[in-house]
Specification:
The protein is an alpha/beta fold. The protein folds into three domains: 3-48, Transferase, Pyrimidine Nucleoside Phosphorylase, Chain C (Transferase, Pyrimidine Nucleoside Phosphorylase, Chain A, domain 3, Up-down Bundle); 79-323, Pyrimidine Nucleoside Phosphorylase, Chain A, domain 2 (3-Layer(aba) Sandwich); 331-419, Pyrimidine nucleoside phosphorylase-like, C-terminal domain (Aldehyde Oxidoreductase, domain 3). It is built from 16 helices and 13 strands. A four-stranded mixed beta sheet has the order 1-4-5-13, with helices on both faces. Strand 4 (195-202), helix 10 and strand 5 form a beta-alpha-beta unit. The longest helix has 17 residues, at 211-227. It is globular, with a radius of gyration of 22 Å. It catalyses: uridine + phosphate = alpha-D-ribose 1-phosphate + uracil; 2'-deoxyuridine + phosphate = 2-deoxy-alpha-D-ribose 1-phosphate + uracil; thymidine + phosphate = 2-deoxy-alpha-D-ribose 1-phosphate + thymine. Residues 345-419 form the Pyrimidine nucleoside phosphorylase C-terminal domain. Belongs to the thymidine/pyrimidine-nucleoside phosphorylase family. It comes from Clostridium aminobutyricum.
Length: 434
């Protein structure tokens, strides 16, 4: 088989066979195919696209490029949850305990963040003593014992994706439905769960800017998951303003705890209950998503979900006293308020600007080598639709570097727009794709 022939075939709009896809994925992962040839193929795929069968074969080849986790020793239907990324998205820390409290085993591998804020693993490491790297046997035992464990994703999961994505990032070939879908789903399918729930964001702070593109991506991924024998459900949700009020690692963990105590912002509570309800349905503990939602609401209200979070923290070596003592989290040195200079209603909070401002305060990474300031971030005192009086605090920026905090304030204040009349409420849950 010849790489030149494969590039030519796709450049001319041909359909690649399974053997050809397996050949270039394996060859590139092993370093036998040079970057310049893989770049040419990626550009050909970008313009000529792949059909559903090609995309499935690409996903499968990338999945099989490394370890495929075996979770058969865990009792019950294991359900994974994945978000395509957003600003202030701390739902895993809420939905995992809720679903686990309803009897759904959560054995999840999560990543670190690159960009706006830390990933789920970074957030969990804001909890003193919490271990995100544990042996496979302990991971399985924890899920069987407490119903929940979340660990860092190893480099052995879909290594082809890591290498191909790095090349896509520098060759302007990221924005392609087949390549995006295969990238996400190869990792999810290799992680070993029986069912997958996807939160596909759309809007200003999301990778998919439009509702139509988000729905298309969601459908691609649902089809890929189902074709692989995994029950897969996607929820298309709004990311035109940050989710919740907290953006930044310690701040987001605290908001997650407050949500499990029943004190969370309306949007994060609604989304978490929706996602958890779908996970409960996918895990076979409810006959419908609606019944799953009701079950999720019950364990949130009666404290069982909060107790499950405590078990989760303790199981992985963390100090569960943080649930009632937020001073145990990494503490900021500096804070600065953003003050409204006018009366009116908050008409818009540009999620992307807030995300970047939070990153620049220290809450996110520009490169993989950057160290995160776990105390840094932005807390929104006002959300879209809230009435504002001149002189009120719109948001507060936190961090341990005064210059970074001041720079973040300058950026974040540009995210707010105002109107004289109360704006329409943003629709959070836009579509569910079964």
């Amino acid at each position: 088989m010849n790489m030149n022939d494969i590039i030519y075939k796709k450049r001319e709009g041909g359909k690649l066979a399974k053997e050809e896809i397996d050949y270039f994925v394996k060859g590139y992962t092993e370093g036998k195919i040079p970057d310049y040839q893989m770049s040419a193929l990626l550009m050909a795929i970008f313009f000529q696209k792949m059909d559903q069968e090609e995309t499935y074969q690409l996903t499968n080849a990338m999945k099989l490029s490394g370890d495929v986790v075996n979770l058969s020793q865990i009792q019950g239907i294991k359900v994974d949850k994945h978000s395509t990324g957003g600003v202030g998205d701390k739902t895993t820390l809420i939905v995992a305990p809720i679903a686990a409290a309803c009897g759904v085993p959560i054995a999840k591998m999560s990543g670190r963040g690159l960009g706006f804020t830390g990933g789920t693993v970074d957030k969990m490491e804001a909890i003193p003593g919490f271990q995100t790297t544990i042996e496979a046997e302990k991971f399985i035992n924890l899920v069987n014992k407490t119903g929940i464990s979340v660990i860092g994703q190893t480099a052995h999961i879909a290594p082809a994706d890591k290498k191909i994505y790095a090349l896509r990032d520098v060759t302007s070939t990221v924005d392609n439905m087949s390549l995006i879908s295969a990238s996400i789903m190869s990792k999810k399918l290799a992680s070993g769960s029986d069912a997958i729930v996807l939160d596909v964001k759309c809007g200003d702070g999301a990778f998919m800017q439009t509702f139509e593109d988000a729905c298309e991506l969601a459908q691609w991924m649902v089809d890929l998951g189902n074709a692989d024998g995994k029950k897969t459900i996607a929820v298309v949700t709004d990311m035109n303003q940050p989710l919740g009020k907290a953006v930044g690692n310690s701040l987001e963990v605290i908001e997650a705890i407050e949500t499990l105590k029943g004190n969370g912002p309306e949007d994060i509570t609604e989304l978490s209950l929706t996602l958890a309800g779908i996970m409960i349905f996918a895990g076979g503990k409810a006959v419908s998503c609606e019944e799953g939602y009701q079950m999720a609401e019950k364990v949130l209200q009666n404290g069982e979900a909060l107790e499950k979070l405590i078990q989760f923290i303790e199981g992985q070596g963390g100090d569960s006293k943080v649930v009632n003592d937020y001073s145990l989290f990494p503490q900021y040195t500096y804070k600065q308020d953003i003050i409204s200079e006018q009366d009116g209603y908050v008409d818009k909070i540009a999620a992307r600007i807030i995300g970047l401002a939070s990153q620049h305060a220290g809450a996110g990474r520009a490169t993989k080598e950057d160290q995160i300031d776990l105390s840094a971030g932005i807390y929104l005192h006002k959300k879209v639709g809230d009435k504002v009086i001149k002189g009120e605090v719109l948001a507060t920026v936190y961090g341990t570097d005064s210059e970074k905090v001041a720079h973040s304030v300058e950026e974040a204040e540009k995210a707010f727009a105002f109107s004289a009349a109360e704006p329409e409420k943003l629709l959070l849950i836009k579509k569910i794709i079964l």
